[in-house]
């Protein structure tokens, strides 16, 4: 995806053409940036050739390769975002003229299987769905209700399922739950279910470790189910088998429930792989990105459905604040290489926030926690 460059025969090619990183060679960074103008006039638009720009900006080879793997699978927009993730950013200055904070905010691709953004996505998911705890506590306060970890397992197709097949899997879970409700005679208001779709790890040997076995981990606040219903060939297993009949997952029968020891622990079980990647292979991560492209991973049923607290008016409009004085930050519209922003003497906003939090904790009076 290199740029087509016309170079005058009367002078040497500029540094960016020769593959020299930004800020080195015979041109200053700002001159080099002219060759990677944004592809659109909109704020925070990506460079015209994101992969080549990312290479010159010092992106790790593994990051570039994953972007190429995403592009090879037709995920071009995600590929472009991933290429410049963390190596491009925007200026952000404190709006208080008495404060001298000058920083930068790293651009993030927000792809689910980006090694940097995956952990951020996990933290956001956990924090978001922890908002269901009051609903879970209310359900658990009833007599005969327990909080359990639940797993749904499918037969291995021997290949990565498509996004459409992941949707079929989610439909099977909903079908199973309708069967369970009828069998036990309870309504959607009597239980809460939250689950997340996952794939298993890739192992060096054995068919079961090829990483294509689609399954789901969840937390279930539930009325107690009869003990004889559990196990292979028992009622729950038969219900799951019937729910998958007639689909690509026909023959699936394994379903398990275990005591969670509380909603927060069950929530951690539901999102156990969302922020912990079992592989760092760019091709594997691109396969996972493709399987979940356009598909929701986190799902809620019963009393948990549409029960998350609503955002307060104006809450989403609040921008980042200065880590030093708390005033609003003025953010620039242009994305620039991080090395250029650092040469301007700017500080990483995330690192500055972390340092400010640490300083508050260390300077807090005894017995106080921030």
Determine the strand fraction and express it as a percent band. 15-25%
Q: What order do the SSEs take from the amino end to the carboxyl end, as H and E?
A: HHHHEEHHEHEEHEHHEEEHEH
Residues in helix, %: 25-40%
Overall form: globular
Low-confidence stretches: 1-19, 204-209
Number of strands: 10
Q: Return the average pLDDT rounded to an integer.
A: 82
Main sheet summary: 5 strands, mixed
**Number of H- or I-type helical stretches:** 12
Describe, in plain words, how this protein is organized in 3D.
The protein is α+β, with helices and mostly antiparallel strands and 370 residues long. The chain folds into two domains: 1-114 and 330-370, no CATH class; 117-302, no CATH class. The protein has twelve helices and ten strands. It has helices spanning 29-33, 50-56, 61-72, 76-84, 117-129, 133-140, 163-184, 235-244, 263-270, 282-291, 338-343, 349-363, and strands spanning 88-94, 102-106, 145-153, 192-199, 214-223, 255-259, 298-302, 329-331, 336-337, 347-348. α2 (50-56) runs parallel beside α4 (76-84). The longest helix is centred in the middle third of the chain and has 22 residues, at 163-184. The protein is globular and about 70 Å long. The chain starts with 28 loop residues before the first helix and ends in a 7-residue tail after the last helix.
């Amino acid at each position: 995806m290199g740029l087509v460059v016309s170079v005058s025969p009367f002078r040497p090619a500029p540094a960016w053409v020769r593959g020299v990183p930004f800020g080195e060679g015979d041109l200053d960074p700002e001159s080099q940036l002219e060759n990677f103008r944004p592809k659109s006039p909109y704020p925070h638009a990506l460079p015209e050739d994101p992969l080549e720009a990312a290479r010159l900006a010092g992106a790790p080879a593994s990051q570039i390769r994953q972007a190429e793997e995403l592009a090879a699978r037709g995920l071009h927009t995600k590929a472009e975002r991933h290429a410049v993730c963390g190596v491009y950013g925007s200026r952000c200055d404190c709006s208080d003229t008495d404060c001298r904070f000058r920083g930068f905010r790293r651009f993030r691709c927000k792809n689910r299987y980006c090694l940097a953004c995956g952990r951020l996505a996990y933290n956001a998911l956990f924090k978001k769905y922890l908002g269901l705890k009051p609903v879970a506590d209310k359900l658990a306060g009833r007599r005969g209700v327990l909080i359990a970890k639940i797993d749904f397992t499918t037969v291995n197709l021997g290949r990565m399922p498509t996004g459409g097949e992941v949707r079929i899997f989610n439909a099977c879970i909903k079908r199973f739950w309708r069967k369970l409700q009828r069998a036990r005679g309870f309504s959607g208001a009597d239980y809460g279910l939250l689950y997340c779709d996952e794939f298993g790890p890739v192992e060096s040997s054995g068919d079961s470790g090829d990483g294509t076995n689609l399954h789901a981990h969840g937390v279930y606040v539930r009325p107690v189910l009869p003990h004889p219903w559990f196990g292979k060939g028992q009622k729950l297993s038969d219900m799951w088998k019937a729910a998958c009949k007639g689909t690509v997952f026909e023959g699936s029968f394994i379903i398990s429930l275990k005591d969670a020891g509380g909603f927060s622990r069950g929530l951690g079980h539901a999102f156990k792989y969302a922020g912990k990647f079992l592989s760092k292979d760019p091709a594997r991560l691109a396969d996972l990105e493709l399987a979940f492209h356009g598909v929701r991973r986190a799902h809620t049923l019963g009393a948990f459905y549409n029960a998350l607290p609503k955002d307060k008016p104006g809450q989403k409009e609040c921008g980042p604040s200065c880590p030093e004085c708390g005033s609003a930050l003025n953010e620039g519209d242009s994305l620039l290489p991080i090395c250029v922003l650092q040469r301007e003497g700017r500080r990483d906003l995330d690192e500055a926030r972390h340092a400010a939090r640490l300083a508050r904790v260390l300077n807090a009076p005894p017995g106080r926690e921030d």
